[in-house]
Amino acid sequence: MIVSQFEVSQYEDTYTIYELKEPGTSSRVLVCPERGGIVIGCQLHGEELFYLDKATLEHPTANIRGGNPILFPICGHLKNGSYEWAGTRYEMANHGVARTSPWEVISTSTNSEASITLRLQSNKESLSAYPFHYELEFTYALVGGELHTRQHYRNCGQAGSGAMPFYAGFHPYFAIEGSKSIPYDTDATRYVDYNDNVVKPYTGVIDLNNRGASVCLLDAERREIAFPIREGVKVRMRYDDPFKYVVLWSVIDHPFICVEPWMAETGELNRQEELVLLEAGETLSCNLIISRA
Hints:
The chain has helices spanning 54-58, 124-129, 268-271; strands at 7-13, 15-22, 27-32, 38-44, 47-48, 70-71, 82-85, 88-91, 104-109, 114-121, 134-143, 146-155, 164-166, 169-170, 173-175, 181-183, 190-193, 198-201, 205-207, 215-218, 224-230, 233-239, 245-249, 256-262, 276-278, 283-292.
């Protein structure tokens, strides 16, 4: 009898949780479609990388603190929580609508990888904050001890309806032990310190021990970043070209750091200088890979 190298199963724990497993690399990924299509656990080569405050997951309206929330159609916040498009003003919460919406499970697979494909479509509620017909299709795939997040962003509007603006991103929480003064392996040369909105030189280390706000790495040409989270455990993230920025954030006295690939800086839907613009019928496809370095 041939035993599959990959496994996909599900169980109930407040919500339906899907478990992707690759026993040969001691790796598993946990996905909760109902709570924003979020990955809540990422064990690679025997080490759990993600932080999760389970109480925020179980509360049906709380912002989940942990895992890897999906940010769409914006990253960060908007001034006064609103923006104007085509002469109409709309209100939108921080990080957009995808992370608070239930996603639909399309399929699972154990053929050459352990994977699950989810879909999110625009609806009456989302259209009140973001007046565009969209479809997001994400596949989480565990293979070779790596987590791939394959993304497809589609403008489902009618021909001639205009371009759909967005800037997507991710908000992974990594469980850390010890100091948050960490060397980040990146070719970024500067960062914006959102504590004082001053651009500063990046000298190899960012200290998040006592920060109340985030920083945004600038000028990176390599679409990857690596960093240690505990002794003997280093994380590497690789991402496609649309993700131009990486935001670093934490909360004082909480054992996590967030290392967040974003397509644009916070507030971009107000500035409208670096928006991704998809015409009706177009699709943007990207990948994010989380691995052990």
